[in-house]
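Supplementary Methods, section 5.1.

A reviewer requested that the exact input to the structure prediction be made available. We therefore reproduce it here, unchanged from the version used in the analyses.
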Amino acid sequence: YYTVLWRIPETFGGLTSVALERSSAFARQDNRPIEILTFSPHNSGKEREQALKADGRLDRRVTLRNIWEDLGAWSDDKLARMKGTARLVPEAVDDALPHTPESTREERKDDAGTVLQTDYYSTQGHLRIIDRHDATERGTTGGRLLTLLDSRGRIVAQWRSGGAFYKAWLNAVFGDQPSYVIVDSGYASSIFRTYRKKNVVFCHVLHSNFLKNESVGPRELNRGRFDIFHNADRFDRVIALTHAQQQDMFALNLSSGNLTVVPNLVRDLHGDAEAPRDKAHGIMLARLTKGKRIDHAIRATAAASQNTPRLHLDVYGDGDMHAELTQQINANNAGEHITLCGFASNAKERFREASFSLLTSKQEGQGLVLLESMSAGCIPIAYDIKYGPADIITDGVDGFLIPDGDVEALTQAIIRVATMDDAELTQMRRNALRRAADFYETAVVNKWATMFRECSFEP
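The structure derived from this sequence is encoded token-by-token as follows.
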């Protein structure tokens, strides 16, 4: 079983969290090794693996593999499995850049700073890959040539595109064993448009809304999703996270019959509905970007604080709007009520302490933070957007659904939770815990297993 991501950055959001958690759940539930495959040259596999396991984000049976790191560690016998697709250019070995001892990578750039060539070295210090991006005319971007060398400096294989190079590695990784591959990265999914193997079942997960966010007028596809839908039938299965998204896709004829619903899973955060909490303490986990509409949360919290002076909202996440949001907090005189806490790898643990959580995004694929909040007994207050909140929350029972973009209604919901009768609030927390259990790993991994059993290895 394989998971495909392009990279795993130091700080990451819901998509990567879901992929890591699902991979770990597969490993735990079936006591089997799982591999996560990455392709970015700027992302170590082993170092990230160790760090994620130390943070408790990755099961011990899960391995991270990065193509560049993998090839740098392979023996000559293993390298021989890499089959080239380009006509041999022997003089490519003469392109090697001067090498600084102990350096694992050398670069050549043009005057504007654009990288024209990168040389990668093996763990033993041998030149392993020469990757030129100016193969048509030296010094001018255009034309790619990747040359793989063995420990003696002999050419093993060459490729004229990154895609062909990646596929050669995937062929070596998958071999002839029956395998299941789940592609989470939309960027990495482009590799699989023209890649098939008889012994591999390929699945692609849609983590976000496929429609543009206009609330009025004709519905229009999100331009970033064009490529995925144009090539959706090349996958054995395309996975929607909610039934609502599946039905919308059916209605717009965006499925070729391979669309299946499997929700995100969430690990049980073991919330305690009876534990004492500050009713006026809220939390929000979101990237500080425009699409998350944190400005709505700030305005609503500032307004609600007029009725509940003890109200406080902690916002966890990084992003390019930090300075702008800080200014807005100050403009609303809400500095004592709202704190931008930055990124914290263990932020979801804070759900166990908070009374309520906010989700004000323009759109979501499902909304993992809602499930994390509910599994901790923290009451979610969410805009009723596509997709996720209405598939998870029963309004007034285990959380609150707010009309999309209605800051006044959001304000009133915050006030309601912060001033609610203790017995009523405790019952809502119990209901939230009960609902979150529908998305715990045993149930969701079984859904994946059922789907895999229905897939055929026939072309």
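Residues 14-30 form the longest helix (17 residues). These observations are discussed further in the main text.
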